[in-house]
Design a protein that fits this description.
- The complex is a heterodimer of chains A (319) and B (310).
- With 319 residues, chain A is α/β, with parallel strands linked by helices.
- Chain A contains ten helices and twelve strands.
- Chain A has a single domain, classed as 3-Layer(aba) Sandwich (Rossmann fold), CATH 3.40.50.300.
- Helices cover 32% and strands 22% of the residues of chain A.
- In chain A, the strands form two sheets. Chain A has an eight-stranded mixed sheet with strand order 6-7-8-3-9-10-12-11, sandwiched between helices.
- The model of chain A has no long low-confidence stretch (mean pLDDT 91).
- Chain B has a single domain (2-305), classed as 3-Layer(aba) Sandwich (Rossmann fold).
- Chain A binds chain B through residues 38-39, 150-152, 180-186, 189, 207-211, 213-215, 244, 247-248, 250-256, 260-268, 270-271, 286, and chain B through 37-38, 141-144, 171-180, 183, 198-201, 203-206, 225, 228-229, 238-240, 242-247, 251, 253-254, 257.
Chain lengths: 319, 310
Amino acid sequence: MSLLELRDLSVTYAGDVPAVRGVSLGVAPGEVLGVAGESGCGKSTISNAVLRLLPKSARVGGSVLLDGEDVYEMSFGRLRAVRWATASIVFQGALHSLNAVQTIGRQIAEPILLHEPKTSRKAADLRVGELLEQVGLPARRAKDYPHQLSGGQRQRVMIALALACKPRLLIADEPTTALDVMVQAQVLQLLTGLVKDLGLALVLISHDLSVLGTTCDRVAVMYAGKVVEEGPASVVFDDSRHPYSGALAGAFPRVGDPRFRYAPAGLAGDPPYPGDLPPGCSFHPRCPVAFDRCVSEEVELLDLGAGRRAACLRAGEGS
Amino acid sequence: MSALAARGVQVRFGAARAVDGVDLEIGSGEIVALVGESGCGKSSLARALLGLVRPSQGTVDCDDRPLDYRRLKEFRRHVQLVLQDPSGSLNPRHTVYEAVAEGLRIHKVPGDERELVAAALSKAGLRPPERFFLRYPHELSGGQLQRVVIAGALVLEPDVLVADEPVSSLDASVRGEILALLLRLRTELGLSLLVVTHDLGLAWNIADRVAVMYLGRIVETGDTAEVLTAPRHPYTKALLSVVPEIARQEPIVLKGETPDPSRIPAGCRFRPRCPAYAAGLPADLADRCEKETLPVLPADRGHHAACVLP
């Protein structure tokens, strides 16, 4: 059974700006779900919607089920308990969100002491040490301040922090974006290791389809607030059925593949502003294979079998 | 002939040898990618090549003549910089026109300013240029902003562009468009280009040659296709193995991060993290790794690696 299930989730920001438009996704324990897309496609809005962290002015439709329980029907007390302890988020730009004047040990201990008030200081410190070791840092680093750590180490601290109250669902929003390739590989290895060892459900949000393709079990590609393609990670990357996922996959060339040599692949134009979406398929103005029906018909996700779905009138034509 | 070259360049910050002896040439009309992780010294080397820091040893040559630090202004017309984050490198209160015209005014370039600005904008792919004149940065998308930054560099008609991570802050779908623009500038204007990046995919996309930097030195250099398909240095091999697209091979994830450039290990500087050394080498080779200081790689076009392994 899915630990997290989004049912037809929609989020509309103030001023009638639809950021997320009917997204249904699920992730089970021990599974890694990737959400891919560019800035403004609604992927970060989804992560905030899961724990009800959206601004008050945002209207939310559909439902978010966490372990079968609707997050939007929880009392505030229940919600507080669920945050951190059932699901936690490693936010985008987390590298800069550590408190500069507190040791990292104290910052990791804070949610533990808040959620389990009976915990003694000593037990909390012990747990902090375990958490740091779990993310590959020596326990003594608890005494360090954020500026004493490198970017990769700070990202590890953010992951330790998210794990502090033993959540079963972890949402990581662009966890490796500001990191070097080698450090990125280390962090991804750490995250997938945690999924395996702790049976976590992991939602990995990234603009880099190649990262998702190699780390996730399933991938959902978002464009303009909708999922345009979903399926097993490797096939979405290698044999995409939606032209947008194809373009995203091509944007990160395969080193060694002569097709990409001196041939950077991109898409003309920019993603649409969510408050001013084109009619029909919102991708049609940038789509290389659009035809007349795309301009007028809104396309829903079509089931393509083998666990694959794509929202394109030409999805059935593929190989 | 080389458009821009580093000869034995060393850049020191106190005890740290950020760049520790580098020979690198960017030929006329050539695209060279300088690849490495944060802290490897690639940005310091780029800054030295731009005349922004003076090397503590070695020289920077422009058109085969050593750079004259009393004539930097003249040099800057030949070599222009494109920065990483376009929204950070443009003044939010300047219009696109002002941003692009600024260089012309500083260098007192003769001619019709409007025409020159329009020409630069259209070379950078912002067409029709007049439509962008009065726009402010916040009204443009990331890709358009990066084109404005490139237009600002092109307006002075330089021979060489140095681009520091030109696409890393851009959306995936826009990235290819900007890279295609850089390639086009080379074919249409004969520009030489040094791209500083940690992204090997980018190098594969546009670079003729690639130089891999580690802890202040170039550890492998050569034709992009050769270095990236048949890497010789264990560091290059590891970097390639963690590029997600080719992770079908077992990734060689190195432990730790680039060490402190003020404490460069003796012998081969990569040895403490080298998977080949850690796996055990014959005694004579291991001995050479520990003791031998490897020579600086030559700047020619051949494939070279600073490693004692065959």
